């Protein structure tokens, strides 16, 4: 038997996001977001699913805080819906929106749980999209104002702030592949948006710090080790480019190095970000949040097929290579997390790191009120062990958030993918803690992973 004991004070937690769990999309003055528009447009999400009701967390949050208390994890990451606070993105704040989050934060603190607040988890007010969305500098400025207003209200009780969740996903899935809101398919826009998101991160970090002297400020990036699909030089070059687009394009400017030159040259024909914005992006970072699910396996494709000349290996190809896949078709590669943490720590020396999301979707079955999700337990155990090895090697990892507390609206996949450690019956909206919930509760209680 082996015991992997984590450092004292390690912040175990779970994570959620507003649009994925709240529902109540037109209550108490909330304005529409781009995800309302996108999910209601025909053919955009699995069977037309929307976040209209989701987990009804907006009404059932006291139950969810009770679940968190039962879990006993010291931290909880959630996001604030910008359109609840500013229904039109700008203008006067909507008091009931602020009150909702204030009550949630108070209940968490009362339960002894440290809140980690994400300010942008993809639900841009539609009114701002109508004026050009993240392509426009005015959206970044509105974001900073929103950050300031929220921090003024909650900053005496909330210390940990995350400006953005996964700007790569917002830029590329939302504006180049078009599979996320706002559903655009335009490479120059995607690159411009990636830059504006980074600028808005910098502006918001300044605004948060101006509003609260005790704020601890970070950003969450989705990072992955990138593997070449073969030794062929074309595949290797494509993998190098993808590493640049996914990882270095965001890490380098945030850590004060400007954009990586190889990627910049490649993207310049589409959009070349101005150097004058670099100091704004490079605000001091108290911590870096990493969302890790799987490595990326990249192969070269003809440029006629897509302008970047690369593609990810399909799930079938990964399965043929012997990888286990989750219900998302993502390969299970726990060592990828260890390698990623070591690399980030070596190359960027962040002050502190948090895994702000990690978890897996499996086709869970509710049988007599129980869900025996052994695959999820195995996935998490292997990833916790990988994180532990990185901690032992000196990586300043301070906490780990499991995605997710609840099964929820998995974006374009609707409710067809279940990531929760709590099962949600979408008919009755009842919650059923899965086997992984009890398993995780034990880990949190011991602050250790016991194996064998
Ligand atoms: C991440 C998102 C999160 C969730 C997981 C599965 O990309 O940040 O909202 O959907 O993937």
Brief rundown of the structure:
By secondary structure, the chain is of the alpha/beta class. The chain has helices spanning 18-21, 34-40, 57-71, 82-85, 95-110, 126-129, 137-154, 167-175, 187-211, 233-254, 261-267, 278-281, 315-320, 334-348, 374-392, 435-446, and strands at 2-5, 11-15, 75-79, 114-120, 160-165, 216-222, 226-228, 287-291, 296-300, 310-312, 353-358, 397-403, 422-424, 431-433, 448-451.
What does this structure look like?
The structure is a single chain. The protein is of the alpha/beta class and 452 residues long. Helices cover 41% and strands 16% of the residues. The chain has 16 helices and 15 strands. It has helices at residues 18-21, 34-40, 57-71, 82-85, 95-110, 126-129, 137-154, 167-175, 187-211, 233-254, 261-267, 278-281, 315-320, 334-348, 374-392, 435-446; strands at 2-5, 11-15, 75-79, 114-120, 160-165, 216-222, 226-228, 287-291, 296-300, 310-312, 353-358, 397-403, 422-424, 431-433, 448-451. It has an eight-stranded parallel barrel, surrounded by five helices. Strands 7-9-10 form a three-stranded mixed beta sheet, covered by helices on one side. Strand 11 (353-358), helix 15 (374-392) and strand 12 (397-403) form a beta-alpha-beta unit. It is globular. The mean pLDDT is 98. The site of beta-D-fucopyranose has 12 residues, from loops. Residues 17, 20, 165-166, 169, 222, 291, 357, 403, 410-411, 419 line the site of beta-D-fucopyranose.
